[in-house]
Amino acid sequence: MSLSLSRMLILLPALAISAAALPHAPSPPGPTVPPVKCLRHNPSVQNGTLVDQLWEQNCDLVTKFLNNAFTAAQAAQTPEGTLESLQYYFVQDYYYLTLTVPHKAYLLKSLNKNESAAEQTSAINETVLDMTGDLEYAASFRHDLTSPDHLNVSSSVVKNAKLEPVLREYVDWLGGNTNLGWYLWSISRLPCIYGWAEIAYQLNQSSTTVRGTKFVDEWLTPNLEWSYGTKLSVELQEVLVANNNTETFAVANGLFRKALAYETAFFESALGKTIKG
Q1: Hey, what's the torsion of the CAs at 43, 46, 47, 52, to 10 degrees?
Q2: What is the Cα–Cα distance from 70 to 89, expressed in whole angstroms?
Q3: Rounded (10°) CA dihedral 249, 255, 256, 261
Q4: Which ranges form a coiled coil (predicted)?
C-alpha cells in the first residue's frame, strides 16, 4: 500500500533532517582555524631545522611536557611541590644517568662495517671517553645529591631507592633504540637534552614561580642553558641529508612523541612523593 499524500508531507521534514545529519552531507564552510604552533625560545636553533619541525608538529605532547605537573608544582611551591618530592625526583634522575651510560657502548654495534680498523678504533676510543665523562658527571651529581649544601639526601636513601616503573621502561626503551643507530637514538633524547631548557625558560618567565627555593637553585637555574640542545640540533642537522626521508621522518616523529610522553610521565612520577631511608 502506498503512503497517502498527507503522511508523505508529514514525513518529508523528518527525511530532510535525517539527510542533513548523514556523515557525508556537506556542511556550511566555517572559519579557518590556524594550526596550533608551539613556540620555541632557544635563539640558536633555526626555524625549519629538524628540531624545530619536531617541536612544532607535536604541540599536543609538547604542551603537556612543558606544563607537566611536577615542575609546575615545584615552581609554584604548591602542597605537592615539596622538598621531599624534589629529592625523590633527583634520586630517580641519578639512576637515569647511571643506567643510560652503557647505551653509548650499545651504539658501537651500529658502526659501519666498511670503515677501516683505524676509524673503528677511533670510534671506540671516543665512546670510552664519552662514557667516562658521563660517569664522572653522575658521580658529581650524586655528590650534590647527598651534600648538605645542595639536596642533602642520605647515602642510604640513594643506595636503597626503589626505581619508578616508568624510569625502568624509559631506560629500557632508550637502550632498545640504540639498535636504530645514533641518529634516531639521539632523537629519542631530544625532549631531555633540548626540552629541559624550554621548561626552565618558561618557568623562569612565570610570575607564579617562587624564587629562592631548592627547585630554582638545583633544577631551574642550572637548566637555563641553551647550549646542550643547540649542540644536538646542529649535530642532527649535519647528518640530516644522509639519514632523513619521508619514512625515517615518520619514525623520528614517533620516537620524539614517545620520548615526550616518557619524560612527562617520569617527571610526574615524583609528584608529591616522599623519600624513605
Answers
A1: -90
A2: 9
A3: 150
A4: none
Question: Residue written as cell 497517502?
Answer: 4
In tens, the pLDDT along 177-234 reads 999 999 999 999 999 999 999 999 999 999 999 999 999 999 999 999 999 999 999 9
* All three cell numbers of 33: 582555524
Amino acid identity of 255? L
> Taking a C-beta distance cutoff of 8 angstroms, is the pair 177, 188 a contact?
yes
Distances (CA, A) of 269 to 4, 39, 209, 229, 232: 68, 26, 21, 24, 27
Identity (one letter) of the amino acid at 258?
K
- How many alpha carbons fall within 13 Å on the CB side of residue 154? 6
| Angstrom distances, CA of residue 205 to CA of 8, 11, 46, 202 | 67, 62, 22, 5
In the 8-state DSSP scheme, what is residue 210? P
The C-alpha cell that represents 272 in the structure block: 608529591
